[in-house]
Structures are given as structure tokens and as C-alpha cells.
Design goal:
The structure holds 2 protein chains of 2 kinds.
Chain A (H helix, E strand, L loop, with lengths): L4 E3 L2 E5 L4 E6 L4 E9 L6 E6 L5 E4 L2 E5 L5 E6 L8 E9 L8 E3 L3 E6 L1
Parallel strand pairs in A: 2-11
Antiparallel strand pairs in A: 1-3, 3-8, 4-5, 4-9, 6-7, 7-8, 9-10, 9-11
Chain B lengths: L3 E4 L2 E4 L4 E8 L5 E7 L6 E7 L2 E5 L6 E7 L2 E7 L7 E8 L11 E2 L3 E5 L1
The chains are: A mainly beta, B mainly beta.
């Protein structure tokens, strides 16, 4: 069974601070996605990383996929109250027999105070 | 309509009721999923349909019954539920390619279910 450990579970910071969320596993993934979810809504895809060592930037968000494709991080620079939400990482099975199944981390609840 | 839609958005039902959740995807994907999201728990995969065929049933109780009449529509039929089944039920779709690999899932807004 593949597991994704996401940390921290909760993060409460002031506007303008930087933060990093981590996603770690002992399993190799063919790709890893990051989602953001607001209360009462479904997760919205932020980014997909596929290649080991890949770095992608989305405005103030920087996503990195580990060289071995077992871990990932999300870094937010100068956080804004609008960044508040639940952040989820999800890994796609590298084995190819899972018919598109994703393994989800437990999520990080981020609160950015004005 | 674009993306993945779900109806109803909110549902309150008694333990003896029968109801159905509906999901429709407008992305041309070939796989659809049902997830359960409870407070303080990771997303739990319930069912996977690939090319309308059920390829995964994660030990879900029989009081949940999925139906996938075509690659764009997915239903979750509910009967004799328990209060602990109260949760946000999310539908997702993806395009599954060679060797069953897909990269991204796109989620609907979910149905908030309360069982009384």
C-alpha cells in the first residue's frame, strides 16, 4: 500500500510570511499533483510534476518533485489571505495497474491572517 | 456546463431513505471516481470506473451502489445509510492512458451528505 505523508497538518501564519509544505513517501510515483480545496468545494488542481527534480512555478507558489520521485514540496512566498485553504498532494502509481488511482496525503490546512 | 458537475450539492436523508448522487463530466475523460471526504481523514477512494467498467471497489459497504451508464455519467445510489456516512462525497474524472496511467484528476464541487 502506498502512503503519502504530508506535513505539517496545520499552518497558521501572518500575511507576507513564507511557508513550505512537504509530501513524503517511500514509494515512487509516476507523477505528483498538488490541489487546493476551499470549504464545501472540491479540490482544484494547481500543478502536476512528472520528472524527477522538476521545479514548477505558479505566481508565488513553487512546486518541486524530488529526484527519486518519492517526495515533493510546495513553497509559498509572501502568503496572502487568499491562499487560505486545504492543500493536498496526490501521487499517481508508477506501476501502471491502478487505472488512474491517486494516493492522497492527509492535507495541510493553511490559514493566512491579514 | 464545463468540467465536472455534481447534484445535489447538499442532501439530508434519514437512515431508511433511498437517494442518488449524480455526477457528470464534460471533459471527454474515460475514467470516473467516487471519493468520500470526512473531517480529519484523507480522501478515501470508493469506486473507480474505467471505460464504464468498475475496476476498483475499495471494500465499500453494499449500502453504497455505483452506476456508470456511460463514460460521462456516474451515479452513487444510497440506501439505509448510517450517521457515520455523513461526509462530503466527491466525484472526479481523468483520462487514463497507456498501462492505466493518468496524471490528473478533476473534481466536482461535491455533495454534502448528512444522515440523520
Amino acid at each position: 500500500t502506498q502512503l503519502l505523508e504530508q506535513s505539517p497538518q496545520f499552518l497558521s501564519i501572518q500575511e507576507g510570511e513564507n511557508l513550505t509544505v512537504y509530501c513524503n513517501s517511500s514509494s515512487v510515483f509516476s507523477s505528483l499533483q498538488w490541489y487546493r480545496q476551499e470549504p464545501g468545494e472540491g479540490p482544484v488542481l494547481l500543478v502536476t510534476v512528472v520528472t524527477g527534480g522538476e521545479v514548477k512555478k505558479l505566481k508565488r507558489l513553487t512546486f518541486q518533485f524530488g529526484d527519486a520521485r518519492k517526495d515533493s514540496s510546495l513553497h509559498i512566498t509572501a502568503a496572502q489571505p487568499g491562499d487560505t485553504g486545504l492543500y493536498l498532494c496526490a501521487g499517481a502509481d508508477a506501476g501502471g495497474t491502478s487505472y488512474g488511482k491517486l494516493t492522497f496525503g492527509q492535507g495541510t490546512i493553511l490559514t493566512v491572517h491579514p | 456546463e464545463t468540467g465536472v458537475t455534481q447534484t445535489p450539492r447538499h442532501l439530508v436523508m434519514g437512515m431508511t431513505n433511498k437517494k442518488s448522487l449524480k455526477c457528470e463530466q464534460h471533459l471527454g475523460h474515460n475514467a470516473m471516481y467516487w471519493y468520500k471526504q470526512s473531517a480529519k481523514k484523507p480522501l478515501e477512494l470508493m469506486f473507480v470506473y474505467n471505460f464504464k467498467e468498475q475496476t476498483e471497489n475499495n471494500s465499500v459497504p453494499s449500502r453504497f451502489s455505483p452506476e456508470c451508464p456511460n463514460s460521462s455519467h456516474l451515479f452513487l445510489h444510497l440506501h439505509t445509510l448510517q450517521p457515520e456516512d455523513s461526509a462530503l462525497y466527491l466525484c472526479a474524472s481523468s483520462q487514463v492512458g497507456f498501462r492505466g496511467i493518468s496524471y490528473e484528476q478533476y473534481f466536482g464541487p461535491g455533495t454534502r451528505l448528512t444522515v440523520t
